[in-house]
Structures are given as structure tokens and as C-alpha cells.
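Notes, p. 3: input format for complexes.
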Amino acid sequence: MSAERSRDSAELIAARAQCEAARGVPGACLLAPQTQIIDQIHESVVTMDLGGFITGWNRGATQLFGYTAEEAIGKHILFLYADPDAEDDSEGFDGAFLEHGGRELEVRRRRKSGEVFWASLQLSLMRDARGDPCGLIGYLSDITARVEAEKTLRLQSRIFEHSEESILITDPERRVLSVNSAFYAMTGYTEEEVRGKTTAFLRSDKHPPHFYDEIWKHVETEGSWNGEIWTRRKSGEDFPSWASISLVRNRDGGLCNYFSIFTDITERKKAEERIHHLAYYDGLTGLPNRTLLYKLVDQALVEARRHRLHGAILFIDLNRFKPINDTLGHAVGDHLLRCVAERLRSAVRTEDVVARLGGDEFVVALFDITRREHAAVVAQTVLAALDPPFVLEEHELKIGAAIGISVYPRDGFETEALLRMADIAMYRAKQAGQDSYAFYSHDMNQRALDRLKIETGLRHALEHDELLLYYQPKVDIASGRIVGAEALVRWKHPERGMVSPGEFIPVAEESGLIVRISAWVLEAALKQAKAWQAEALPLTKVAVNLSARDFSPDLADRVKALLVQHDLPPAWLELEITEGMLTHSSEDVIAMMDALNAMGVKLSLDDFGTGYSSLAYLKRFPIDTLKIDQSFVRGIPEDGNDCAIAGAIVSMAQRLGHRVIAEGVETRAQLDFLNSLGCQEIQGYLFSPPVPPEKFAEMLRAGKTL
Ligand code: C2E
Ligand code: MG
Ligand code: MG
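Output follows (706 residues plus C2E):
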């Protein structure tokens, strides 16, 4: 405390005692002329006695507080305080003076209207003629605007410092004045390192120099610029940022500063890329998906139109994927699809697009072919690439494909149409068998429509009881008697009459409807068998044909439940499966067959000899009966080849302990030859075609023999 102020303080305390006595004589220590002068002062001036009671109040004070002199004089000064009880009111009446003497204080006061405002207060001691302290004089002025501005500034500087976005402020020459701590975190530069430098050190080579010139030009003309920009860290690494650059002008319109705010958007960019990838690429193989394929082909067609180019779409459908996926499980299926994708990718040129549509369907799009035949060459290359078996874990899988080709502009002008046509051609290639390709043609379109009709019709048939079963006898050659029946499905079409399974079973297999059909056939055949058994007809088994798709893991359980439901011994049921189903069979399928076999259900291998299966691995499957395909029976006894094949099948079956049945036996000569080979059973028109159940029962009752 200064000497002067301590003197003032001591005097104040002494003088206050005197003043207590003089209370009630307002303005005692202020002379009239002085009062007038004070009144003329613009500033508000308030005088008070040493006890704090107001003794003088000028016009300025009236203006500032809203109280007239009459209202104010005589009141204690505390009535002007914003918060008279506040302990932190640092200029608390006398303490303030003692503490601060004549120093300027910032205080909060209340107007008559109740409004609180910030005031600057300067207090000084008044002395009487003798020089003794007799009161205080306070000069007040409204500083609300200034205090608010300071508060805003403080707030701004906090925001500046604590912002997560980098902030950089430069002078008009774009030399750095200040940066915040986020700037350091983002770029690695401290304020000391960059102060005074131009902002060029943040530039990335990813933008050409004129890019920056254009930004600055934009800022000059428009006042600000926002956008994505590559920024360089101190480490030399570039990162994508979102920048907002503005200029600040002073009141006269002169340029004072530039400030840039930028955010690191690396993560957002990555997320965007991930989303883009998810939207346009197949998650399993990484190939473009259907959406991207459409986009790419659309673009290519625009180019092709402009430059009169030719293009082609190859629609690729894997041949034996579904049974592999169903039997070996999805993990193997997924792995296989990835390997297929790799082979396809490396079979074609980099500028050709390879996409996966889903499932086991792929597309190769060729955007610049000179002749239609080039598409055929690529199709052959693709087939050749898929030909070698895929070795996954312990499995060796031969997959193959069917390829349909549509050509721009011959077959169509739009992506959608070209893909549809290639798809149709692919079905045609499938029908042609094994691994082949086919170009689209107009009559294919008709066939595709027919197929679609069949599929819709079949759904309808399943719901409206249009399916029925015919039965064909299986005859024991030695006794000449019927020993079994093969259930063969028929479709009684409301308009077309009886439709052959040869027409609708392949459609049902492709569309997946076969699973529902098989379920229906199994149920109907067992019901029929039970009826015959109950009637004590001389029959011991009923055979049902199954497709690869029926081999779901729950097959054995379903069969068991059905047998229980119909109260039939398992030996009554024979399941005819085709060789194709064994070609890629896994341990799971073998286990399922073993389960069926253990239950007592018989398995027979239909159309034997037409597939690719090697005879050697037949040992692995619990097969009871081999069924010689009718294509070999047809040539017997004239065709030497057919005879040899039939002979080989029978002798091998005998060695492996399988029974043998020949199907499609139409003549006695065929029967005799087969009998001479040692074949045990026959099935065919020689004895009976497939017939409705009533007719079949009649044959049984009549004891019909060969
Ligand atoms: P498949 O199982 O090999 O059945 C034998 C087919 O040969 C039957 O044709 C039968 O009518 C015919 N056939 C019988 N004896 C002779 C003969 O002496 N000469 C000639 N030329 N043909 C004869 P269908 O009934 O038209 O069945 C054709 C194929 O449709 C069946 O071949 C089988 O693969 C399939 N199929 C039939 N019913 C079903 C079924 O319920 N489920 C499944 N998955 N497939 C079935
Ligand atoms: Mg059969
Ligand atoms: Mg057959």
C-alpha cells in the first residue's frame, strides 16, 4: 500500500467518526458552486459521506442510473449495487477504498429499471477546509459494451485454443501470425516454427500450383473459400482436409487478416471409400458387383455408340457349384468362388470387366472387340481357365461353367437387354451339356419365355394339386415277378394335359422348386406304399428319384420322420440318386448316405454310366444297386460297344457287391442278353410303362410275370 493511501486510510477512519455526528446534513462538505460544476460534468458523479450515504448526485448520475437527485440523495450507496450482498463485490464500500485508493474499478451496478450494467468507478477522498477527509466522490461511467467485447474476445480466444479444428491466422501478406494447438496436433508444426512464414509450407504436390492460386483468387473476390484440399504435415505426409479460408477486413474495408480453419478428414474419406466399396464391390471376391457392372457397361455403351465399337457380354454360370456348396458347406463354397474370381480375372485382359452378379454367376464384359468371334475366343479362354480342378483343403473340385454371349450392337443396345440375352444364351449352353458357350439367338428368347412359363406353372401346380405319381414295375429276372415300383412324377397341366418330367424337372432343379416337388413325391409315394402294404399286395419296395438339391443335411432325419409317420419299414424305401451327385461328394454326403443306409433305406445309382464318376470311388458310397442307363440298353444286343459297357458294369457291380438293374428294357433280346450277363432286375416297356397306381395294383393282384 502506498504511503499516501495509508495516510488516506487512517484519515478516513478518523474522519468517519466525526461524520457520524454530522449525518443528516447532506452535502456538508461540498460547496454550492462545486455542486453546480459537478452537475455540468457529463460523467456521472456521486458523492457520499464517509458512512456511504449519498450526499451528491449529478445529472450524469441521473442519466446513468435513472434516479433523480431527490431519489438518490440520503440513500446508502449500496442501493445502487447489482448485488449488495455479494461478498466478492471487491469494491465493497470502504474496503474498496482502502484497498484500491483512487484506482479505477470495474463494478456491477443496477439502474432504476433493474437493468444491471458494468461501470467503471473511480473513488477519491474529499477533504474539508481543514484538510480532513469529509466524504468520497465517485466517478462512474457505463462500460458494459467494453466488458462484453472483452468477454467475447476471451471466449473467442478460448475457442481458438481449444478448437479441434486447426486454425491459422495470417497477416495480409499471408504470413502466419498465429496458430492454435489443434494446428500443431494436425500438422506437427509449432507456432514458433511457422510464425512469419507464408502458408506455402502446407501445400501438397497432389495439387498443381495453379490450384492454390485459384483458391486465393476466390478468397479475394468472394471473401471466403471452402473445400477439400490436400495438406502436407511436417513429416511430409499429405492428408485430406476440409478447409475454410476467409479474409477479415477492418472498418475501412482494408484487408487485415486471413484465417483458415481446417479439419483432418482422413477418417471420413476412409469411411466414404469403405461405403463406396460396399456399394460397388462384391464383398466376397472383391470384384465389381451388379450395380458397378451396370454403370461400367452403361458408360462403355456410350463410348461404343460414339466410336462405333463392338462389345460383348459373357454371362458365366458355374456348373457344379450348388451341390458343392450344399454338401461341402459355405466356407468351402466361398473359398471356391474366390478362386474362380481369381482365375476369371487372370484369364482376361485388364481392360475387360469381370463382375460377380451373386451366387455362382459372373459376367465378363468386353468393351472393344472387332468381330463377334473374339467373344467366342474369350469364352473358350475362360472355360479353359476354369477347367483344371480347384484344390481346396483335401478336396479336388471340378467346377466347369456354361457361358452365354450377347453382342453389342447386334443383340441389343441397352445394358439390361444385353445381360438378359447373355443370361438366356447361358441357359442354352447349360442344356447343351458340360462346359460350353452359346451366342444369343432370337429363338432362345422364346425358349427362355417357355421356361419361365413352366416355372410359374409349376408353382401353381404345387399349390393346386396338379402333380401325380405313376409307377413303373421293377422286375426280378429270375422269378419274373414285380419286386418294386419306381415312382415317376407327372404334371397334369390344366391346358396342356400330361407334361413329361423331362420337360419340367430341369426347370424345377434350376429354380430350386425341386425341393418342394421331391418332398411332395416322397410323401405321396410312402402313402401309396403303405396302402399297398396294408392290402398285403406282393411288393417290397418303392423307389423315389432325388436331385442333388435334395441332399440337404436334414435329409436323413426327414426321411426317418416320414417312414415313422407312414409306419413303413425303411427297407421299403429306395432312393435313386444320379452319378453327378457323387462326383463332388464330401464326407458330409457320405455320412448322410451312411445314415440312410444304417437306417435300412436302400440307395441306387440311376443312369449309371452317363456321368463321369470313376468306378473306383464307388467303393466309398453305401450303394445297393447300380441302374444301367437306358442309353446302353438301347443298343443291346446289336451294338458291340453298348454290350461291352453293360457287361463291364455288371461284372464290376458283382465284384463290388452291388445289385444291378437295367432300365429301358424294351425287347426280349435285351432281356436275354442282360440275363446272360448276370443282371438281376429289369425295368422297361417290355414289362410295363409307368402306370397310374390303380393299374399298378391290378398288375400286382393279377400276379403278372415276365
Ligand atoms: P429315370 O429316373 O431314369 O426314369 C426312367 C425314365 O425312363 C422314365 O421317364 C420312364 O418313363 C422312362 N422309361 C421307362 N421304361 C422305358 C423304356 O422301356 N423305354 C424308354 N424309352 N423309356 C422308358 P420319365 O418318367 O419321363 O422320367 C424321366 C426322368 O425324370 C427320370 O428318369 C428322372 O430322372 C426324372 N424324374 C421323374 N420323376 C421324378 C421325381 O419324382 N423326382 C426327380 N427328382 N426326378 C424325377
Ligand atoms: Mg430313376
Ligand atoms: Mg434313369
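The domain at 163-269 is CATH 3.30.450.20 (Beta-Lactamase).
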